[in-house]
Each structure stands twice: as C-alpha cells, then as structure tokens.
Amino acid sequence: MSAESFSGARILVSGGAGFVGSNLVKLLLAEGAAHVRIVDNLLSAERVNVPEDARVAFSEASIADDRLLAGLADEYDYVFHLSTYHGNQSSIHDPLADHENNTLTTLKLYERIKVFKRLKRVVYSAAGCSVAEKTFDTAQATEETDLVSLWMDSPYSMSKVFGEFYSAYYFKQHGLPTVRARFQNVYGPGEILGAGRWRGTPATVWRNVTPTFIWKALAGEPLPLENEGIATRDFIYVEDVARGLAACALRGKPGDVYNLASGVETEIRDLAKKIVGLTGSKAGTKLLPKRAWDNSGKRYGSPAKAERELGFRAEVSLDDGLTRTVSWTRENADLIRRTAKKHDEYLARK
C-alpha cells in the first residue's frame, strides 16, 4: 500500500453509519480499502446508511463500549473518529448524554489505541463552530489557531474542543498520529431528518438548517429564519468533506489541524432564497426570534492551509450541491418521512 492510497488498507470508522461517516465509507471502498470496520450505536444514524459490501463489518455499539474496545486488535492502518452526540440543542438538553457520547468516546478510544503500532493516522472530526469568534458583526475567516474562548454556546461545542485537547495530548504524550479535521456546515445527500433515537428536543428531527429548509420547502411550509436569517455559515458539500478527511489521513501532519471549509460566507436568508427557488416553493419564509443560546452569529473557515499542505479544496459549489441535495431528498422522501414520523409522539408533546 503506497503512502497516497487506501488500496489494501484496513480502516476503523467510528460513527460510520452517520451522514458524514457513511459518505466517507463509500469513498474509502471506492478507493480500494480492503476492510472497513464501522462502529456506530445508531443514536443519531440509520442502519440503511451502512453500505452492503463484503469488505464492511458493522458493529452496533458505542465506540466507548468496554467489550468492543477490548476486542479491537492492532490491525488498522487508519482510524476515523466521527462519532458524536448530535448536536448543540441536544447537548444543551442533556449535557450528561453529550459527555458520554461526545467526550468519553474520544478518551476511551485513544486510551485503547495509544499502544497500536500499525496506525498511520487517526483523524478526529473537530468542529469549526467551537473555535470561531462569537460575533454578529463582520466575520473574519477562522484559521487553524490554538486560541479558544471559554465562553461556549453548548456542551457540544465544549466536547469538540475537549476532543481536540485529547488529540493533541495523545500525540504529544504517546505518539498517537492524530490529525484534527475541523468541519464547517456540512450538507448533502444522506442526511436523514430524524435519524436515530429521540434525543430530547425537536432538533432530533430538524437537525441542520439545509435539510430542514429543503424538506419544509418541498412540503410547502415557510422556512424559519431565526434573527431574520442574518447569521452566516460556511457550507461545504459532504463529498468534499469526505475527500478532505481522506486527505487528512493520507497527507495530514500528525498533531496538526486543518479546516475542511469552502471559504465562502453565506447568509442563512440567502440559503433560504436559493432553496425556495430550487424547490419552487410558494410559502416563502417566516421570521423568528434569535435563538437565546446561539451567539455564533457569523462565521466561515479559511481553506488556505488545507489547500497548501494537503492539496485539498472544496470543488462543489453551493448552487450545485443544493441542486443535488434537493434531488436526493425528493428521491428519498418516503425514507425521510418514515424516519421523521417515528418521533411524532414526542414532538406532539412539545
């Protein structure tokens, strides 16, 4: 196996049944991986996302499960640690569950694999929102610095920073070849509204802004714009993120961190306009108050370091990516409807 290929590689992907994880697994298989072990407790994912491929082994369990960890052998070339407790609002509702599924998972995994000798890279999925400046004024592109505010919006944001702390520590202390990949706002095919189990709030269904807007627009519902939609985000297509994760594994410097970002700042109200146009919705938008907990108003990531050091840059434009995602949503409407419907009993109480 060459240094620039996954051909013949044995790979562990925690959270591999999730939205990003399943797209990554498809890429790894397409690039010749010999074996992909997926570990996912399906807390915020669906079994349907696991590829039917003889090279894939699936374990429905937490990556923090003691029995599972004890059974891991030093046979992996790469580990992608993507499991998380999705997302901000769920973590605010239940910070203990966030700790169990978002912080403890990283610590226990690293403690188990710190002695492995075969590993070339361990790629940790970090969050751009955790390190971005909290502002509603003019945003500056967030770079890969070590400056982190103590004033976080949610336990989720804190947990993702803790994961970076552990990644840096286990590299420095034990030589574990960790590379941190800081996601921006990932969107695209495969993000199933309502995926997984009820996590305490309607955010279990209405996970992220892009799939929520697309689904509501297709259903003829107005798109909810908190704080008039003035917030900005950096939207990056999921297949680009999968390529970025692969680049981190193949070319990332152990101990270092890279933004997986488009570098394009988009207002949420402009995202809504694009989706209304693509879907032909007549319902438009509705204005809602600012979310009290959300102070990360305007942000986007700098892609310069990843392009310079990894040769990675996002290739799919927002317009093209939204077109593909709208098409996927239409084609998978029955699946999304069934998945979201299983939470109706809980939503009815809210």
Write a concise synopsis of the structure shown.
The protein has 350 residues and is an alpha/beta fold. The protein contains 13 helices and 13 strands. Helices cover 39% and strands 15% of the residues.
List the helices and strands and how they pair.
Blueprint (H helix, E strand, L loop, with lengths): L9 E5 L4 H12 L4 E5 L16 E4 L6 H6 L6 E4 L6 H6 L1 H19 L7 E7 H4 L23 H20 L3 E6 L1 E3 L21 H10 L4 E4 L5 E2 L1 E3 H14 L5 E4 L5 E2 H12 L5 E4 L15 H7 L7 H14 L1 H9 L2 H4 L3
Parallel strand pairs: 1-2, 1-4, 2-3, 4-5, 5-6, 6-11, 7-10, 8-13
Antiparallel strand pairs: 9-12
Explain this structure to me?
The protein is an alpha/beta fold. The chain is 39% helix and 15% strand. It is built from 13 helices and 13 strands. The protein has helices spanning 19-30, 66-71, 88-93, 95-113, 128-131, 155-174, 209-218, 238-251, 268-279, 304-310, 318-331, 333-341, 344-347, and strands spanning 10-14, 35-39, 56-59, 78-81, 121-127, 178-183, 185-187, 223-226, 232-233, 235-237, 257-260, 266-267, 285-288. A 7-stranded parallel β-sheet has the order 3-2-1-4-5-6-11, sandwiched between helices. Strands 7-10 form a two-stranded parallel ribbon. Strands 8-13 form a two-stranded parallel sheet. Helix 4 (95-113) packs parallel to helix 6 (155-174) and helix 9 (268-279) crosses helix 11. The longest helix is centred in the middle third of the chain and has 20 residues, at 155-174. The radius of gyration is 19 Å and the shape is globular. The mean pLDDT is 96.
**H/E element order:** EHEEHEHHEHHEEHEEEHEEHEHHHH
**Main sheet: strands, sense, barrel:** 7 strands, parallel
Q: What is the tally of beta strands?
A: 13
Strand order of the largest sheet: 3-2-1-4-5-6-11
